[in-house]
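anyone else get weird line breaks when pasting these?? whatever heres mine. first is seq + tokens for prot A
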Amino acid sequence: MLERLNQAMDHIEDRLDHEIDAAELARIAVTSEYHFRRLFSALAGMPLSVYVRRRRLTVAGAEVLAGQRTLLDIATHYGYGSGEAFARAFRAMHGVGPGEARRDGAALHSQPRMSFRLIVEGSGSMRYRIVEKEEFRVVGRKARIPLVHEGLNSAIVDFVRSIAPETLTRLEELSDQEPRGIVAVTDNLDESRAEGTELDYYHAVVTGEGALAGDGGGLDTLTVPAGAWAVFEVSGEFPRAIQDLWRDVFTQWFPSNPYRSRPGPEILRTRPSEDGRQGDAELWIPVEAAAV
């Protein structure tokens, strides 16, 4: 998998002066575009589109300083429709406009070319299982909240605290299959998964009963198609253990196993200690067999 990802990175370098199609990159990596974008973001720490833009502006910056072509020629060569659009993007990355950089020989920022390799840290193993589930429903309360990569998400904390105890009791009665009990469900994330982008968050249960979301109880329902799920287990400090687990799933487990992520919600079942600092958790990720 990593070899194929690096072939896709070579393709990016070969086409910095052309349109770069994410679907073509996914084909080179022998995976789906959905999985390629998610895996790239996890491995690179930035969305694919940001990396491509920064690489283009790095190479364009060297040409600006070289002074062998006009600024407009450089702008059009790298796909910018006008000198003004190029100047805005150039300034956003380098902190100066291209004209100023050429005139004054300014110091520019550089986005290094990336390649991927798997580094095994420690001797721990990841506990997981693959579960096939029929169509089911997520039923509960939903809010649109910002994504937070590290630490507590205050928007989620405030939202959960706003749910009435009687609603939580009613939800627990609707839970009739794995993962049992009240769970945290995230869906409809921005493909970049950048910090601060918004997602749908459900404080809910999993049920197959088509539970009563429209009976005046103020509940929201998400129907989830049948499919396979990779279920990962973790114990440790909250929320860090969960956030580290999600990172390790995409940076270590997927590159080493014959599966890829597929569209669908992610489900987190937690069982915290009394003080809330430690606990056990299960992370459910929708998966499918990877192409060979």
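and prot B, same format (seq, then tokens)
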Amino acid sequence: MRIPEKMIELAREKSIRYGDEIEFHASDVSNMQLSEKFDIVTATFLFHYAKSIEELESMFHSIANHLKPSGKIVAYMASPDYQLAKGNCQNYGLNILSEEALQGGFIHQVEFITTPPIELTFYRWSRETYANAINKAGFSQFEWIKSVVLESNIERYPAGFWDNYQNNCMHAGLICQL
């Protein structure tokens, strides 16, 4: 897995500029071996890079090993409930080119609607697959969080613009606690 060093570098620069005391690490989560433990680990669009159920389980296990007792992981990710047949995401900058079933989830080919378009592959796992990985890693509880659109953003766009996002959202939050 390619580690986004440039993203970490930019985050460190902003953290210093704003006087934050945030510590950043770039590592392959499945093989991460840090000497310290954390209260909270954030994972934004991480789990959809797991190419297999075993890799997904390894990610959760590794993160759990780096949390303090009662530590949490706060994740934002591809929703296990999204269904391409109910609508694509072009309004929101993402064109889903294909969706293919695989054991425990789906594999997607997508492109970000940019100039030029950026293509990538990601995996969207089922709720059951996530629950198994979370439980195997030793988390005591977890909760799915539905994405919402701010009222101010709803008002800025034509009626119906956000309907697919609100009814068939591609994104979801997940909070897991040891």
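btw re prot B: The radius of gyration is 17 Å. The mean pLDDT is 92.
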